[in-house]
């Protein structure tokens, strides 16, 4: 993998470069910490008697892993990149830099307090991805609002007439997520079935309206930039945006099929899950057609291979989600490790790979410092082989588990049958974690390592976007 494009340096304001670098170094810390926790969790399956102190118990560490990867790693990495993209596409610097700095402080404070409280056993209960107590969630929400405001102000001050498609997605994510967070925090309806409905709404939309929107926004910027050609179709991008908004908010109840939630509501969630094929296939087709006949450019780039894997997992993971929603398949897969495979296909294969692609595409252009070629290659292959092995192992193991339950075998028989696949997951996870250490080294090279100074910024001429 070799990139010719890395010689190009953005004419970004030094403080914007510092902002972007700080978001990415913080996010990298959270990636390392929370996936070390994930790795420990994966070894607890084959060795359940290992590390049994309450502070290292599965229940506490699992929530630390999921909340930390969501709100520490992915949210900080995607918000930092989205802020930088908003400035580049608007042809100006970030309009209100202190909002962005304050947002980074809130994100980090929330992740620190969330991790400590969860490890002390202080939590909101077993509501997945919202186990943080209310005041920690409010600090995180503040972070989202401040980053969102910084982006909206920057886009409002743009020199271009059009709002670039990336910013449609990004602003969509920043508008919808506070609604989600407020619904999740307010105690109204959070009893009995109301709580189940709110949980379905929250957990699936955190993935769909936050991570997916930000990741798509970054792809719509990085892909044309790296290939040096326009996106295949602006119209397909807009179709994807609006159909995402129509279908996503209702599909969360597919996590609660066969529950006491009204049957019609579950059916609606299944129908809308099928509707999700429209934005997913429109987005995938748009990205694939933008990359058509550019295999050599992809092969020679640091960033593009990550985006190719990210787009492939967007297609596979999301299409799998539609198929998984059918009642006939949920009878087998519900509650099994198959779902964990699906979560990592989407949150890791799609979201994390797109975040890496965006970082490798934009951070060297911002700082003028390049990652190591060898380290990037190792990062790419370890992470790609690792996540693919992870997903395959749990898909097979989860199916065997579900079939054993459906056959009415004793529960321990399903544990014995799934055990080899959990060992395979721990091995795959070790490879993924190794990839994260290598990525952290590259982030160091692209940010803190000695290199060209970033003070040769020239104010851009008005009327000419910095993205040109
Ligand atoms: C070294 C890499 C990683 C390893 C070894 C790992 C391992 C694990 C383990 C063991 C679990 C608990 C599974 C269970 O309860 O059966 C888990 C859950 C989860 N992880 Fe990871 N993980 C890694 C990276 C990530 C990343 C980067 C993300 C997100 C950006 C992520 C998101 C999740 C989610 C959402 C769940 C909950 C899944 C569900 O309940 O459906 N993981 N992970």
Describe what this molecule looks like in 3D.
- By secondary structure, this protein is mostly helical.
- The protein is 73% helix and 0% strand.
- The chain has 15 helices and no strands.
- It has helices spanning 14-44, 58-90, 97-119, 134-156, 165-185, 192-227, 234-247, 263-275, 277-290, 295-299, 304-324, 327-333, 338-367, 373-406, 411-446.
- Helix 2 (58-90) packs antiparallel against helix 3 (97-119), helix 2 runs parallel beside helix 4 and helix 6 crosses helix 13.
- Protoporphyrin IX containing FE binds at residues 35, 38-39, 41-42, 62, 65-66, 69, 73-74, 337, 339-340, 343-344, 347-348, 351-352, 429, 432-433.
What keyword list fits this structure?
468 residues; mainly alpha; 15 helices; disordered N terminus; disordered C terminus; binds protoporphyrin IX containing FE
What is the helix content?
Answer: over 70%
Question: DSSP strand (E) fraction?
Answer: under 5%
Backbone CA Rg: 22 Å
> Could you state the oligomeric state of the chains shown?
single chain
Q: Major beta sheet, specifics?
A: none
SS elements, strand count: 0
In round numbers, the mean pLDDT is 94
The helix/strand series, from N terminus to C terminus, equals HHHHHHHHHHHHHHH
**Separation, N- and C-terminal Cα atoms:** 25 Å
Number of helices, counting only DSSP H or I runs of 4 residues or more: 15
The small molecules bound here are:
protoporphyrin IX containing FE
Unreliable sequence segments? 1-6, 463-468
Q: What overall form do the CA principal axes indicate?
A: globular
Summing up helix and strand content along with how strands pair, one would put the structural category as mainly alpha
């Amino acid at each position: 993998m070799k990139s010719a494009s890395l010689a190009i340096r953005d004419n970004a304001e030094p403080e914007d470069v510092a902002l972007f670098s700080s978001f990415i170094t913080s996010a990298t810390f959270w990636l390392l910490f929370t996936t070390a926790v994930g790795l420990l969790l994966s070894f607890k399956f084959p060795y359940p008697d290992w590390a049994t102190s309450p502070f290292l118990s599965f229940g506490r560490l699992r929530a630390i892993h999921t909340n930390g990867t969501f709100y520490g790693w992915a949210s900080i990495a995607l918000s930092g990149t989205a802020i930088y993209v908003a400035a580049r596409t608007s042809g100006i610097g970030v309009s209100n830099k202190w909002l962005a700095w304050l947002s980074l402080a809130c994100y980090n404070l929330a992740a620190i307090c969330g991790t400590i409280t969860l490890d002390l056993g202080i939590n909101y209960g077993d509501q997945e991805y919202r186990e943080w107590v209310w005041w920690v969630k409010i600090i995180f929400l503040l972070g989202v609002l401040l980053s969102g405001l910084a982006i909206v102000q920057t886009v409002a001050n743009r020199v271009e007439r059009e709002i670039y498609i990336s910013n449609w997605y990004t602003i969509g994510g920043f508008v919808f997520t506070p609604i989600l967070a407020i619904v999740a925090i307010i105690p109204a309806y959070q009893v009995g079935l109301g709580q189940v409905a709110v949980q379905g709404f929250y957990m699936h939309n955190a993935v769909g309206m936050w991570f997916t929107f930000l990741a798509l926004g970054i792809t719509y910027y990085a892909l044309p930039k790296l290939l040096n050609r326009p996106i295949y179709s602006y119209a397909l991008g807009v179709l994807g945006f609006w159909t995402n908004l129509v279908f996503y908010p209702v599909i969360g109840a597919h996590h609660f099929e066969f529950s006491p939630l009204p049957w019609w509501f579950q059916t609606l969630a299944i129908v809308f899950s099928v509707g999700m094929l429209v934005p997913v296939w429109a987005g995938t087709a748009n990205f694939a057609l933008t990359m058509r006949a550019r295999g050599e450019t992809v092969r020679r780039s640091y960033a593009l291979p990550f985006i190719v894997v990210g787009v492939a997992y967007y297609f596979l993971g999301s299409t799998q989600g539609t198929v998984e929603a059918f009642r006939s398949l949920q009878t087998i897969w519900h509650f099994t490790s198959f779902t964990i495979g699906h979560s990592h296909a989407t949150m890791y294969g799609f979201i994390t790979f797109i975040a890496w692609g965006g970082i490798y595409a934009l951070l060297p252009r911002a700082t003028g410092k390049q990652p190591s070629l060898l380290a990037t290659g190792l990062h790419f292959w370890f992470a790609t082989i690792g996540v693919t092995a992870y997903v395959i192992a749990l898909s097979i193991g989860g199916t065997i588990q579900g079939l054993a339950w459906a056959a009415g075998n004793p529960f321990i028989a399903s544990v014995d049958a799934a055990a080899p696949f959990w060992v395979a997951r721990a091995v795959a996870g070790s490879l993924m974690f190794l990839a994260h250490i290598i990525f952290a080294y590259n982030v160091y090279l692209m940010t803190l390592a000695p290199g060209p100074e970033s003070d040769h910024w020239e104010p851009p001429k008005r009327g000419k976007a910095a993205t040109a």
